[in-house]
């Protein structure tokens, strides 16, 4: 694996082009990343840069939300976004800088919300990524749940949408139906149709086509697995074939 999306930053120019708190963060780590074999910059498009830097920044702020910062943060991030060994030092630098900045998580979340206001699926990808990182230690802590709730509100997700996203990661009452976005009174035909639609909609190839960086395809893979697991539970309960 090459450095890929974590390639060397093109000086502070890229950060200035993106602007805002995420641009400042990028400028702060300019020169700390390695170039891959193709000489790729930090992301193939500005949108990739905003997505991955925003995810790192919000993950770093989340690590401080419960007052516990552990060395496993980069490992947890690496399960969501592919990080080449030679790029690890750069990612750690970005985490450390994001944790230390005076900008609150709200500023990063607002910039992401603005950048992807016409692409809410990408904002949902960010939330899914944060959930995966939060539960990497085996539990979703109360402070982390409050933090994720606050980020979701800034992203414009209402309570029902937040519960649907959360149900893919933690046990909630009726969570299998929540994951599929269905009422428990839905007919068997509706359950099957909804499952087929979600599988097509959330296929990793389609996620990449709509803008999810290829390095973050694990987010789509895990979402699809959660959808299939929810359907399997309902199908087993109903005896569907």
From TrEMBL:
Gene3D superfamilies: DnaJ domain (1.10.287.110), TerB-like (1.10.3680.10). PROSITE patterns: DNAJ_2. Residues 175-241 form the J domain. It holds the Pfam family TerB. This is Molecular chaperone DjlA. InterPro entries: DjlA_N (IPR007791), DnaJ_domain (IPR001623), J_dom_sf (IPR036869), TerB-like (IPR029024).
